[in-house]
Amino acid sequence: MPLEIDDVTVRYGDVTALNGVSLSVADGETLGLVGTNGAGKTTLFRLLVGHESPDAGSVQVAGHDPTAGPAVREAVGYLPEASGFRAALTGREVLRFHARLRGVPESARRERVARTLATVGLADAADRPVGDYSNGMARRLGLATALVADPDVLLLDEPTAGLDPNGVTAFDRLVGALAERTDTTVVVCSHVLSVVERLCDRVAVLEDGVVRERGSVADLRRSVGSDGAPAADDTSAGTTLDDVFRDAVHAEPPVSLGGESA
Ligand SMILES: Nc1ncnc2c1ncn2[C@@H]1O[C@H](COP(=O)(O)OP(=O)(O)OP(=O)(O)O)[C@@H](O)[C@H]1O
Predict the structure, then answer these.
(1) How far is the CA of 219 from the centre of ligand 1 (A)?
(2) Which residues form the ABC transporter domain (predicted)?
(3) Quick one: which of 64, 118, 215, 251 has the most CB atoms within 10 Å?
């Protein structure tokens, strides 16, 4: 498995951010991680890129311990929730910097940067300063920085937050095409259920540092009923998942998503 999290606990002083979390994601699979604020999503991503170490349990990403060295930097592409770029640099300069940082060999760098800019639809804007980019363009440049080293595992933290409906659609198409045409393993985290629903095969619901539910989005929807209330014939759903879903549904942006898939 490219991604294995086994019984992981992370504590910050008195706060237990993750409490015995186990998750695995297969080659080419797209997993959604949903949870309310403070559920532990960012902590989980920080573990996967080696910015955090577990207090208990183990993490393996593309066969490596993420804290063990630079190998994981090359195997994992990470789009953080906010990725500020220096406004004066061009998109191409930003991407060349990330390619070097992520171990793309000098001889391949120019071509790889150009190809990645084209993949995210920024070829025409490559030599414009990033300060002139729209939010959607900056987000796509962020995705390009995550993709430039051809990662085995792609981690996307709230990937469409702050984008307008057109930006959301364009971003979804891009990630959808990636998931379909490559065997990149993708983890998308969001507090908005619809974001992971559009992009993911399988979802895990994280609450207070614990995985409460996992399954396909259809399974989860069935277990809470289509209006967000627990299904009448399902007494196993409990109130916890219901609360998480209500929260996710209420947090949804007012965006019409019908018929947008590529
Ligand atoms: N550096 C830190 N020091 C102390 N507590 C922390 C730290 N980072 C996270 N926490 C706590 O750990 C818990 C999980 O936080 P985390 O940021 O992982 O949640 P999240 O699901 O990403 O939330 P959000 O959706 O708000 O970004 C929270 O209670 C948070 O306050």
Answers:
(1) 28
(2) 3-233
(3) 64
